[in-house]
Specification:
The protein has one helix and four strands, in the order E-E-H-E-E. The chain is mostly beta strands and 83 residues long.
């Protein structure tokens, strides 16, 4: 797969406090990560290029089976092709 421009990425910022006793912060961490994410079409392409047949894509960690523009985690179910 060749990209005409940069692959899709997003910036994710994390902030966490660790406390030894309730209400007393002893350490604090902040981190920003730039994550490359994959579209369903890309995942299907990579699976098929590597000898797998896509069975289904589902939203992971969700009670729905509908993937939409707000779906962040996607589970791919695939089986090895019989070729």
């Amino acid at each position: 797969m060749v990209w005409a421009k940069e692959p899709p990425k997003c910036e994710v910022c994390y902030s966490a406090g660790i406390d030894a006793k309730k209400g007393t912060e002893i350490d604090h961490l902040e981190e920003t990560q730039v994550n490359r994410y994959f579209l369903v079409q890309e995942m299907a392409f990579f699976l098929e290029e590597n000898g797998f047949k896509v069975v289904q894509f589902l939203p992971a960690y969700a009670k729905t089976t509908v993937i939409n523009e707000d779906t962040w985690h996607i589970l791919a179910i695939a089986e090895k092709s019989k070729e």
